[in-house]
Amino acid sequence: MALKLRVSFADKEEAKRKGALWSVADKTWFVPPHRDYNQFTQWWEAGEATLILQAPYYVATSTIYCWKCTQSTTVAALAADSYCLLDYDDSESDEVTEDAPKSWYRQQEFVFISGVGYVDEATTAQLAAAYPFFRLGHSRAGGSYWANHCQHCQALQGDFFLHQEPGGAFSPTTVAECQRLTLEVQPTPYDCILNAGVNWSSFDAQVPRYAKRRRIAPTAE
Question: Which of 18, 50, 76, 157 has CA 20 to 30 A from 37's CA?
Answer without folding.
Answer: 76
